[in-house]
Amino acid sequence: MKRTAAFITALTMAFSVCAISASAINGDVNGDGKVNVTDISIIAAHVKGKKLLNDERKARADVNGDEKINISDITFVAAHVKGKRLLKEEPALNNRALVEYDFGMFKEAVGGEYELTTINEGQPDMDVLAVYNFDVFPNTYFIFGNRGRDCIKMTESGVLTFDKDVFEKGMNDTVPAQVIQVENGGKIGDTGCVVGMKYSELKVKLGLGKAVVENSSLSPNIRTIINGVNWNLVFNDEATRKAVKNKHINPDTLRSDEFTFEELGIDPVCTYAISSSNMVFPTYSFERLKDDMNGEYDVEVVSIGQAAGAAMYNDEVFPNIRFVFRPDNMNLFKETADGYEVDRKKFEKIPGETFVYAVEYLPGAEIPGRGGAKVGMKYSELKEHISLGKAYKTPSEFSPVIDISMPGEDWMLVFDDPSIQNAIKDISIFGDEKFSFEDYNIDPKSTRMVWFNEHL
C-alpha cells in the first residue's frame, strides 16, 4: 500500500509552521533538539527511498514503535507539529494492545489509508466487516462492530464491493476495536511470536495451557491471556482437524473437554490468532451479577439523570462500578429519618432475568479496553487513549458530557468538574450546541461514565 510522492510532498509542505520544542529525542530525527517540519521531510525522504536513514536516525524516526519507518510515523510527527497530539519520549502506541485502538486511533496510525473486506468469524454465514493496512499492521484485521456495514454492495456477478465514504459516515472515531484477527506472519501482540509458528515454539514462549475443540471453524484452539489481553490461538490445519475429529462437543457448552496436543502426538501450526476486547456490563442480568459477586453486594440510592435508581455494587469484584436497577412495579426504596435508602429485602426480590437499567463508572474505574484509562483522569490524559469528540451540556447533573462508543453500546463520559462550570455557563443545554474544551482553554477531570438502557 504505497503513498504517492505528491502526497508526501503535500503533507510535508502543509506543516510548514512554527516548530514545537521537544526535550525527547522521539521524532527529533536530525537531532537538533526540536521536532518540526524538517524531521517530517527527512522521514518522507526515507519512505520514498530518496535518502535512507542510518540506524540512529531510524530509532528516532520510528515514533510509533512498530520497528518500521513508514507513512504512519510521518502522520504522528505531523500531528505533533500541529499540536494535535504531542509525542512522548515513550510513544503511546508502543505499549498499546491492538484491541485498545478505537477507529480514530487506527486511522491515525495508518495515515487514513486502509482497505475494507469481510472475514469469517468462525461460523457459517457469519462474515464480518474488517479494515486493514498490512503495511502498518502486517496480516492483521481490525473489526469495529456492525457500524458502517451499509458500505457493502454486491455486483450482479456476485462480487462484493466496499464504499469507504459510506463506511466512514456510518462510523465515528470513538468506536473501539472489538476483535483483532491475525493471519499467517502477523504478530501476536509484542511477544515476538507470529502466526505460523508451531505449538511447541509458542508453548515455550507463551506458557500455553490446554486446547479445546469448539463448534466453530476457528477450532481447535487455546485461549490464553497475554499482557492482560485475551487471545485465542487457533490450530486449524488439516492434520490437526483429523487428529481431533473424535473429540465430543458438549451440546450445552458447544465445546469439548480440554486436552493437550502432546497426548495426541501432534505439534500443529498456529493458523490464526484472535484477540477480543473486554466485556462491558449492559448485558448483565440481576442473576448474573449476583453470581459474579458470589452473592456478596451492597446497595445504595443513586441519582441517574433526573431520577433515582437502586444500585448494587461489590468494589472487590467490580471496582468503582455501580449497577442500577429500576424494575417495573417495584418500589425499592424506604423512607428513613435522613431521607431514603434501598429496601434490601425488596431489592433481593428483583426477578433474576431483569437487566440493568444503567451502569455507572465512578472515579478510579478502569474503562474497558482503553489501555488503562480510568474515570477521574483529565480530558487531556483520556485523549491519549480515546478519540474524544466534542462535548455538550445536558439538563441533568450528567453535564457536560462527551459521547463515546464501547463494544456494542454508546456511553456518556461526564465532566461535571466545578472548575469548568463558569467557563461554559453561556452554552445552551437545549440547542444541541457542541464545543471543544480546547476552545475554552480548560482541561477538566472526568467525573463519571454512564450508560442507560434505552429500551427500559
Write the layout of secondary structure elements.
Blueprint (H helix, E strand, L loop, with lengths): L4 H10 L5 E2 L12 E2 L1 H11 L7 H7 L9 H12 L20 H7 L5 E6 L6 E6 L7 E4 L8 E3 L5 E3 L1 H7 L8 E4 L16 H8 L14 E6 L2 E6 L3 H6 L5 E2 L4 E2 L4 H4 L7 E5 L9 H7 L5 E7 L2 E7 L7 E5 L7 E4 L2 E4 L1 H4 L10 E4 L17 H4 L18 E6 L2 E6 L3 H4 L26 E5 L4
Antiparallel strand pairs: 1-2, 3-4, 5-8, 6-7, 8-13, 9-10, 10-13, 11-12, 14-15, 15-16, 16-19, 17-18, 19-22, 20-21, 21-22
How does this structure look, described?
- GO terms for molecular function: hydrolase activity, hydrolyzing O-glycosyl compounds.
- One of its GO terms (biological process) is polysaccharide catabolic process.
- Pfam families: Dockerin_1.
- The structure is a single chain.
- The chain is of the alpha+beta class and 456 residues long.
- The protein has four domains: 90 residues, Dockerin domain (Type 1 dockerin domain), CATH 1.10.1330; 75 residues, no CATH class; 78 residues, no CATH class; 178 residues, no CATH class.
- 20% of the residues lie in helices and 22% in strands.
- It contains 13 helices and 22 strands.
- The strands form seven sheets. Strands 14-15-16-19-22-21-20 form a seven-stranded antiparallel β-sheet, with no helix packed on it. Strands 5-8-13-10-9 form a five-stranded antiparallel β-sheet, with no helix packed on it. It has a two-stranded antiparallel sheet with strand order 1-2.
- Helix 1 packs antiparallel against helix 2 and helix 2 packs antiparallel against helix 4.
- The N terminus is likely disordered.
